[in-house]
Amino acid sequence: MQFIDLLTQKERIRTTLLQRIEGILDSGQFIMGQEVFELESRLASYVGTRHCVSCSSGTDALLMPLLAKGIGPGDAVLTTPFTFVATAEVISLVGATPVFVDVCPNTFNINTDLVGQAIDDAAQRGLKPKALIPVDLFGLPAEYERLKAVADAYNVWILEDAAQSFGGSFRGHKTGSFGLAGATSFFPAKPLGCYGDGGAIFTDDDDLASLLRSIRVHGSGVDKYSNDRIGINGRLDVIQAAVLLEKLSIFDDELEVRQRIADSYSLHLQERFVVPRIPKHYRSAWAQYSLLAASSLEREQHIQALQQEGIPSMIYYKIPLHLQKAYAFLGYNKGDFPVSEDLSGRIFSIPMHPYLKQEEIEQICSVLLM
């Protein structure tokens, strides 16, 4: 059994995908070919933003807006410690200081009620709060209506980390469209993934989009040998764009299947575990389906039982960022973010992809309920 089944999906798009790739090979347009611009147009239309700027990874999708906005030393950028390191890593890479905010125990997303106090605390430490990076964890959008009100009150801008949530929505508005900019990842394991690294940034801001397009090609100006600013080599590979174009054509169908699988899991497992809670008006992209065990010991017992039956599982994220060695210099201690720490000790994820068979779902649930 696969945790994420990319091979069955590949067979579904194999013929048209190979045609696209052969067309690229025949054209010789291996860098910024027309597939990149076709993909950007289709993605912007899908999300509902004026601009989509593709890039080489989800990490660069988070990094580039910080570069474009001049975030640097002395600035504070707020985010959650219960996420993959890339979210905080980009803050450090531009020289700014990550300021962590604990998450909600039911949605695992940043706790809006704690953001204002964290901004005040950062200012009292002599930092300049500039931006907020909420994370749409496991596919569920964060509380952007409330977060926007707080961000506006404190004059900070929002960069949506939609690396796991592409295809999710709130009140019909797609992830990637919240905040000044939204960043997503096309890592193969994501709901919409390519066959390598890739990412995209969404925005309605014309000036920001122009800066992002410059930054992704070494800060280029009128041409690549005119450099107006410090940038990166952040281009999306044209073959990965071709992969994404073909996957996008079946994406909404896959999202519907993911939802049905999640519903089936929850129906079977809700009496034994804390299952994911999707608030009213929200739609998750179900990048992962995660459960909370009663304790870390019970989690280990469940994982071992699954493993004995050949069923894979994963733990996201077993060490919150404030306790990672890389962030020891920030001076956080165990107990500073109790919800994130509690989740890290009890959470685990089970297979989630659109090609799970009903008998596989039943087998997984049966093992977990033993």
Provide structural commentary.
With 370 residues, the chain is of the alpha/beta class. It is 40% helix and 13% strand. It contains 12 helices and 12 strands. The chain has helices at residues 6-27, 34-47, 58-68, 86-93, 115-124, 144-154, 206-215, 238-248, 251-269, 296-308, 338-346, 358-368; strands at residues 51-55, 75-79, 97-100, 128-133, 157-161, 169-170, 173-174, 181-185, 199-203, 282-283, 289-292, 347-350. The strands form 3 sheets. It has a 7-stranded mixed sheet with strand order 1-9-8-5-4-2-3, sandwiched between helices. Strands 7-6-10 form a 3-stranded antiparallel sheet, with no helix packed on it. Strands 11-12 form a two-stranded antiparallel ribbon. β6 and β7 form a beta hairpin. α1 crosses α8 (238-248) and α3 runs parallel beside α4. The chain is globular, with a radius of gyration of 21 Å. The two termini are 19 Å apart. The model has no long low-confidence stretch (mean pLDDT 97).
